[in-house]
Write the structure tokens for this entry.
Amino acid sequence: MDSPDQAADIDTSRPAAARMYDYYLGGSHNFAADREAAAKVLEVMPDVPLMAQANRAFLHRSVRYLVDAGIRQFIDLGSGIPTVGNVHEAAPEASVVYVDLDPVAVAYSEAILAGTERAAIVHADVRRPEEVLSSPITRRLLDFDRPIGLLTVAVLHFVAESDDPDGILRTFRDALPVGSAVSMAHVTFDGRPDEMDRLTEIYARSANPTTFRTKDRLERLLAGWDLVDPGLTWVIRWRPDWPDDVEGDAAWCGNYGAVGWKR
Ligand code: SAM
């Protein structure tokens, strides 16, 4: 394999969420089919790159919050194609298990993590949490007697209701010790329902169909986690670095975020 893009199991003819997201963020690990689907998304919502950056900024703020609170181990579900500020870089003192389904995301993660002792990627489907939890990589890197930060940032909206997202999250929570935490970001129909409907149609033809959820539904999904202030809110309103910058309408970001503890 000359480059991670040439891994044998990559279907370049079908758009994939990881590679479309990479395109929104200005990356180069995407193919023509990804760029065509992303272009359709951008026709509907030209501000998607800004939304992706806001999501990424939430990821970083929530990781920083968890590190400041003493978390030194993370499971990053749907970690994506490596880009600026991966979790092991944002939290250099922590061990990180990345998890993704997309072969390009996995191949590039393996490439950048080669030689890194405290971070690795598991090629797995979050809809099968047992496979993530029992992976030899997870068991080698994480100590399940110490708190773990579970990151589900912009991934559970790729899990359909029929795949039981509540059960998936419960299985992860049950496996983690008390004192662990979750950070969740999740795209919603609230605020921009018509545009999100059209995005759902575009993603339905990709490898990763979407199920966007309402705030009420996400509150139920987060049941059992003790949410820190300000609770479940627009990602840009979650403990912003510059609060003055996020006054006014925040619904444009299309994405709710929350952090909660397992007490
Ligand atoms: N978490 C990163 C972030 O917020 O910057 C990347 C988010 S990206 C929008 C969503 C990622 O979830 C993609 O890399 C995609 O391949 C991955 N994904 C989607 N469904 C998945 C599944 N069932 N199991 C594992 N990964 C999945």
The CA atoms of residues 10 and 62 lie 32 Å apart. Residues 17-18, 21, 55-56, 59, 78-80, 99-102, 105, 125-127, 153-155, 158, 208 surround S-adenosylmethionine (CB under 6 Å). The two ends are 46 Å apart (CA to CA).
